[in-house]
Amino acid sequence: MTFKKISIACSFATFGLYAVLIVSLFYFFRRETLLDTLLSERTLFSIRLSVVAATISTLLSILIAIPSAFALSRYDFLGKRAVDTILELPMIVSPAALGAMLLIFFNNPLGLWIQDHGAQFVFTFYGIVLAQFVTICGVSTRLIKAAMDEIPVRYEAVARTLGASPAKAFLTITLPLSRRGIYAACILSWAKALGEFGATITIAGSMAMKTETLPIAIFMRLSSAEIEGTVILILILVSIGLSILYIVRLLSRGSSYA
Amino acid sequence: MLEVHGLSVRAGDFLLSDVSLTVQKSSCHVILGPTGSGKTLLLESVIGLRKPDKGKVLVDGNEITYLSIEKKKLSYVPQDLALFPHMTVRENILYPIRIRRSSQDTENGIMRKLVDSLGIRHILDRQIRNLSGGERQRTALARAVVSGCKHLVLDEPLSSLHESLKKELWYLLNDLQRRYDLAILMVTHDLEEAFFLGDTISIIIDGMLHQQSRKREIYGHPQSIEVARFLGVGNLFRARIPPITGNPFTVYCEELASTLRLSTHRRTSAVTENNEFFVGIRSEDVVIPTQGGLSPNTTNII
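^ Those are the sequences you sent over. The predicted structure of the assembly is below.
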């Protein structure tokens, strides 16, 4: 067997693993439960809550990620390495630990002061948004930085010799050239936020019709042995996720400017 | 006028040391040197992409060394041209005008003149990725000139073109320089290009400015072996003035076992009785005699 064939076989094995997991869902799929589950008030609430929270947390993270990514991509500054390293924190720390860190923070004097004088985060919608934001902020910064790293610095240098200030060069050159990377970061962050479970359940709890996002709804249905309903919710999450990834692939075609 | 005084800049282990030069109004100053000699580093320090460790840059007598890049008023065309890939040719050319929010009339007036003189009217609405090499160079030059800066800094902008197109663009650049009164500081490693476009030439080798003079002078009188070799003089022989004659126009070359007569305009100040120096013989000055005998212009027979 040639190396080429072995490597292709490995890629199909990976595909097969995930395909088997998805196909096995249909063993418990019942057509009659599809509409009942899909149109139940609780499911629709979970979908709505997940979509709204993921959209807000994605917008917030992108707003911070764009300037942060530009700074990390273009400037040398004191503490750059520390900032760059900590972006991976959500990937190396488990989501549950991340949620626990948030919960502990809101129980120390500063966190309590914020809760008293600002918004309530523990067991609320804001907690869901915060948990998702903390999980995706590092990822979206990393993705946008990768897109900006691909754009030669020379474009900005030339724009500045032609009269553009650093801000104008960023707005007219770097930002439009990295737009595909930013779209991809938005969509992937949104998909990750939509599926976020560990941090969300730790800080926002699992209250039905209050903090029950789609992944929490899956967990709760499984806990109460409602397998058919769980399958429908998983299929909804998988369909949204795969559609999003397909869009990302379309967007990231031909994005290199180097 | 663009002046550089005693500019030194370090990049890692490489040091560009104590470079001074002047680009007169409506003239072209070419920096010539082998790859890795520090030419691009010099340009990047002049336009402000790198902070020099020492030295000053002046435009029309005003120091601009530490001004921000956009305030220096030096148009820069890098080796890869850096045409903005998300814009059309028209948008690229108009970028400096739009960024400065000049009026529509200015925009139209400048565009009309420049676009016609560069012959790029037919490609104005094309995307950058659809341009040929020559069209890209013309667009980059147009964008640099449109900015209104009278000082152009060019980093080997024609290096990627094939010979015939390159020569066509030499004439075009010459024409632009005259038409718009431009002072051009240009880097190249192409001798022919340097001697065609340059009024003054500076030769940089290993981060050191070895020689700077008018082009005729630099061709005839390289002041160091490195410069001579870089200018293509492969035949270099140690020589001295024979003590018997003391005549500075006659030198003795031991390696050739010959006495050579020097023409007056080829002699440099280094040729004195007390100095040992090198005589360079260009291949184009060597003639192999045929049956017809020697040419009346023959100076030396080896």
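Chain B has two domains: 2-217, 233-285. The interface with chain A takes residues 47, 49, 68-70, 72, 74-78, 80, 82, 84-86, 95-96, 99-100, 143-144, 147, 149, 153 of chain B (CB under 8 Å).

Shout if you want it in another format.
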